[in-house]
Amino acid sequence: MHPLHSWKRFWKPKLQPRPRRGRAALLGGAGLAALTLTAVHAAPAPSGSAGQAATVAAMAERLYPSGAPAVVISSGLPGHYADLAAAQALAMRVGGPVLLAAGVDTLGTATQAALTALTVPRVSNHVQPVQPPAGKPTVYLVGGPAAIGQGVAQALRNQGYTVIRVGGNSRRATLEAVAARVAPPWPQAARRPGFPAAWDGYVGNPEHNAVFAVPASAPAWERNGVTWRLPEADAVPLSAPFPDLTQLGARGAPVKMTQTIGNAVGVTAVNGVIYAESDDGHLYAVDARNGRLLWEAGPTVNALMGNPVVADGLVFVTAGDTGFPFSQVLKFFLSQGKQPLVRGLGYAAVYAYNAHTGRLVWRHDFHGNAMPTPLAWDGTLYVPTGGGNLWAFDARTGQLRWKTYLGGFDSMSSPNLWTNPATGQTEIIVGTSDANHVVAVDARTGKVLWTQATTLPIFNTGMGDNSPAVDPGRGIVIQDSVIGFDPADHTVNLAIYALNAATGRMLWATKLGRGPAVPAYKAGVAMIHGGVVYVGSPVTSTLYALNEQTGQVLWTFHYPNAGPAGAGRGSPAYADGVLWSAAGSTLYALNPANGQLLGSYTPGGRFGIVNPVIVGGTMYLDNSYDWIQAVPLTRIDPHLAVPAGS
């Protein structure tokens, strides 16, 4: 897909709803004949095809006064109403207006003038987030050469337009071509055997290792890997510098981008579909094989910063922001920490959408942010919030079952779960800030089972900012937090802890090393595999491997060219005997036994708290630049021989 196609709307949903998607449908069916009655100008429009094209052109310029990233052109001649209806749908998808060609071999004066007017002006030499790139719109011609001639297409190319014809030699062929772009067929789960059938929580499992082997019978594309990129609504070109780089510098600009434009954490893979949620306020469902957009839902009331959770035919996402109301902070300090602190400046909510259609099923709003990824278990959806509560809803209906105050607010700590094999009791485990605790709650009743506070000097939002990993077999919880801020040199340490999942008793704690107090998210999400804990530290821009039982550091790998913002926030993945990590702007393949670099690939953009999701031979990711992408494992590690099945 061409990068320009991503600029579907021009304004952030948090500031103003984006009505342009709906406005792209200018007319339909027999309504074409009535266009001359529309009062666009004081003077009446001329009659005939040229007059109708002029009226449509005037409306397009009025709806898109600052230009459009794409324009859809359909024939304005009688007998092409089916093409026109298809053009309306395509315009909704690509985020631009419909124009009419006055004849088979001519656009007409008004349509040609509108194309010029719809060029996006260059108003700055810097990247302008949430605005389409400057330049001429991509032009889609709906219909075959009998509707809009080849001479028209060539003339547009000669003028510097990118021209894409969507159509065939019959009306049916044209409708099918448009439908393939607007409403591609839904993937059949039975034909995609390597994908999980559900995604219950953050990174897909308690260990945070989102890896799914495919059987030998899986199709070749699953086994060998695929390549595609899909720009989301606010996508920035992957080769572009960070917006606000001049104002904020290399330390602040990357994290601002992660928190306001793109994807904060990784994607979800279920039944051949990649689900991704973005700070742009939208949820995307994408065909895992070819990157085609299946549907898009939103806008939501605030940024989406988690993994979409998929269970019982529904997709769950939570919306929130990183801000603190000044009044909350003031009350907190005046009370010397006794007044509960609420995180979240804007609106917050949890949404449930139909997994196949994107239709909204239910919603619940909160006081305090809802940034973490929720957790689905046994028909219940668990949502911790910046208001300090853990909420439990009936996943199908949204009815509240219970809520429990945790003793502190949650920032980005996504809940995990563990079932005690001795008692059968399932507990929800989550981190909180102020007080900085790890808390376990009975999944059935909401009763707090244990609370573990560290004696180490927590800094910033601490435990409430990081998502605990759980080893279900050994009953161990892994959590980490920045500690020990030194005001003299503005450095901190990152400490990682192991807790007994049944009691919360601390088993060990290891300090990983001091470094600058990096901006925003300062911790690293841990992953557990084979008795080893793998965790990155943006404080030192280093990946660590530790013995799960003792906390002893086994090896380290330093991320090169991390920059002052630091790298190593997202959890790595273990697949095919290789450790895979997304850090900074690069994908790494490491030897899990010693941390030796096996290969790397830099696709562009930046990865925030992104974890790789691996299905067969493909790594699926999103990034801070608001892109979703698929990368074959062999592109990262050319020496890898992807097995037929494992």
UniProtKB/TrEMBL annotation:
It comes from the Bacteria. Residues 1-42 form the signal peptide. Residues 265-322, 346-454, 541-623 form the Pyrrolo-quinoline quinone repeat domain. The keyword Oxidoreductase does not apply. InterPro entries: PQQ_b-propeller_rpt (IPR018391), PQQ_rpt_dom (IPR002372), Quinoprotein_ADH-like_sf (IPR011047), WD40/YVTN_repeat-like_dom_sf (IPR015943). The keyword Isomerase does not apply. Keywords: Signal. This is Pyrrolo-quinoline quinone repeat domain-containing protein.
